Amino acid sequence: MSLSILIIEDNQQNMYMLSYLLENKKYTVLKAYNGVDGLKLADENHPEIILLDIQLPDMDGYEICAKLRHNGLPKNTTIIAVTSYAMGGDREKAIEAGADGYIEKPINPDTFVSQMESIHNTK
After folding, report:
1. Confidence at residue 1, expressed as pLDDT on a 0 to 100 scale
2. CA distance 94 to 47
3. For residue range 6-17, what is the model confidence (pLDDT) as tens digits?
4. What is the third-level CATH fold of 4-121?
5. Cα separations (Å) of 73 from 39, 60, 98?
6. What are the C-alpha distances in Å from 86 to residues 94, 101, 105?
7. What positions does the domain Response regulatory occupy (predicted)?
8. Whole-angstrom Cα distance, residue 99 to residue 119?
9. What does the alpha-carbon distance between residue 88 and residue 4 come to, in Å, rounded to a whole number?
């Protein structure tokens, strides 16, 4: 059985690339283009991994991450911030909000899945 991964990402190109890379590795992919839909899909499907953009139109990824952690999401769910926010303190802010890891954009298509798996496997 493949792991399910929820991608919460508002950029169509980023969503396509992440989905393509993950589906090629036989992951089941759920897609949300905003925080409200992401929270709903997480609640309904309990994915093993959530890839979360920080810059979203309706609420930022930090708020979404905190809500995911406090709204009944299974404790073993891995949340990874995938963002172009690469300023000092952004990684720490994501971790404080409840993320287990942080991957900077632009992602490297050759290493992204192994980076994600490494974060998930060390949780």
Report:
1. 60
2. 19
3. 999 999 999 999
4. Rossmann fold (3.40.50)
5. 10, 18, 11
6. 11, 13, 8
7. 4-120
8. 10
9. 31
CA proximity to 38, closest of 73, 14, 3: 73
Token pair listed for 97: 């909000």
Q: In what order do the strands lie in the sheet with 4-8?
A: 28-32, 4-8, 49-52, 78-83, 101-104
- pTM comes to 0.96
Lookup: tokens for 85: 């926010």
Domains of the chain: which residue ranges? 4-121
DSSP notation for 14-53: HHHHHHHHHHHTT-EEEEESSHHHHHHHHHHH--SEEEE-
Cβ-in-10-Å burial (0-12, 13-18, 19+) of 115 comes to: middle
Tokens of 122: 């060390």
Q: What is the pLDDT of residues 73-100, one digit of tens each?
A: 999 999 999 988 667 788 889 999 999 9
CB-based burial of residue 26 (10 Å sphere; 0-12 exposed, 13-18 middle, 19+ buried)?
A: exposed
